[in-house]
Structures are given as C-alpha cells and as structure tokens.
Amino acid sequence: MIQNYITVAWRNLLKNKAFSFITIFGLAVSIATFLLITQYVFSELSYDEFHTNADNIYRIRLDDYKQGVLTNSSTVSYYAEAPAIKETFPEVGNFVRLHRADGMISYRKPSGELVSYHEKRAFYADSSLFDVFSFSLLEGAANQVLRRPESVVISETMALKYFGGQNPIGKTLSLSSEWQGGTTSWKGCLPIFQ
C-alpha cells in the first residue's frame, strides 16, 4: 500500500515538473534558512556563557556615522570611557578595558637562545579582568594578578610554547609592538586556562 502512495506521488511530480521543482526548492531553501538562523541564535545566546556573571557582562561598541552612513564600527576600549560610564550610571558594578597588543613576543632562555613568536591575540587589560570574568588560574591568585604594571597572564599553551616544562613565574617576556612604536617588557608570568 505504501508503495502505491509512492508511485502516485512520483507520477504527480513528473506530471507537474515546474510546480514540483518550485515547491521542493522552496522547501529546501526554507529549511536551510531556518537551520542557519537557529544556529546563529544559539551561538549568540551561548557566547561567554561559562562566566559566573555572564548575564551582567556587557560589551560596548562604538559606531561612527557620517551623513547617515556607517563609516567605522569598533569595540576598542577608550581610556576615559569606562570610568565615566561607571561614575554616571550607578548600575555599573565594575569594568575592564582591553586593548589589542599584537606583536612579537620573545623570551630569552638562560642559555641565551631567543624564543619568539608573533602573537595575534594579546591584549593589554585592566587589573579588574578577573573581577569581571571568571577565568580559572592554574597558578597565582586572581585578586593579585595584573595589579602591577608590566605583569602578564598567559595561557598554559603559551607557557609551554615559550618556557617548555619550566615554571614561567618570575620569567620575563618582551613584547615588540607597533602600538606606541616601542617595546614593552612584562615580568611575572602566570599561566591561566586549562
């Protein structure tokens, strides 16, 4: 009996080829669109959800318009922006400013050998980074890291890349970056992220 239904459906598809094509194509496009929108929504809703205070973490974005046309969109943290927002709005509990610090990061081993890699995901950050975000530290205390200028927090992967099996705490990494056209040295490496 099911075979009979399939045969009749197949004959109708062949009899009305144009209508059948439009219907099947429309159904395929609709399903594909639904799946893409669903995936996008789930991705947006799960963004940084692992943080303890994920519901209270917001990102500020600056859109520049000239004569009604969007000319630039940026999420760079301007220095005075976050303190001014915290002072103006009592609802703001804390803030952290991030600024990209991409460049060549180097470590000179005791033997004199230089280990250097160009890092594309390095950031300057406020000391409140671990007050806002709940990253877990493998070594060190979250309330003490990034409290001094020229201190750094690195991932376990980065610690292995630069220091091998050695303890990275107390070692010095150097950053050569085009930002401000100079070289910055960091001291006191603390690995984070498992």
From TrEMBL:
InterPro entries: MacB_PCD, Macrolide_Exporter_MacB. Keywords: Membrane, Transmembrane, Transmembrane helix. The keyword Transmembrane helix applies. Residues 20-176 form the MacB-like periplasmic core domain. The chain crosses the membrane at residues 21-42. The keyword Transmembrane helix applies. PANTHER family: ABC-TYPE MACROLIDE FAMILY EXPORT SYSTEM PERMEASE COMPONENT 2, MEMBRANE COMPONENT OF TRANSPORTER-RELATED. This is MacB-like periplasmic core domain-containing protein. It comes from Dyadobacter beijingensis. The lineage of its organism: Bacteria, Pseudomonadati, Bacteroidota, Cytophagia, Cytophagales.
